[in-house]
Amino acid sequence: NPSYAKAMGHCLHFMNARIVDLQNNKILDEGAWSLINFMNPSIEELNLSHNMLTDKTLTEFEEWLQKDEI
C-alpha cells in the first residue's frame, strides 16, 4: 500500500535507527520508492528482501545507489 509506505517513510525520517529491517512485508515497487524518498540519511541499511519488488525496481535501486555514492 503506497499510503502506508509513505507514512512509514515519514516515520523513518525522524527515527534515529541505523538499520531498518522491513523484510517480508509485501512492499510493492511504489511503496519501496516512497520509503526511500523519505528516509533519514543516517540510515545505513534498509532490508527490503522478500517483498514484492520487481527486477526493474531492483535494477533502478542499484543504479540510484551507485550514482548517490559518487
What does this structure look like?
- This protein is mostly helical and 70 residues long.
- Helix content is 54%, strand content 9%.
- It is built from 3 helices and 2 strands; from the N terminus they run H-E-H-E-H.
- It starts with a helix and ends with a helix.
Shape field: globular
Question: End-to-end span in angstroms?
Answer: 32 Å
Helix content: 40-55%
How many helices in DSSP terms?
3
Label the structural class: mainly alpha
Number of strands: 2
The rounded Rg comes to 11 Å
Low-pLDDT residue intervals, each spanning 5 or more residues? none
Widest beta sheet: strand line-up: 1-2
Task: Label this structure with key terms.
mainly alpha, 70 residues, 2 strands, two-stranded parallel ribbon
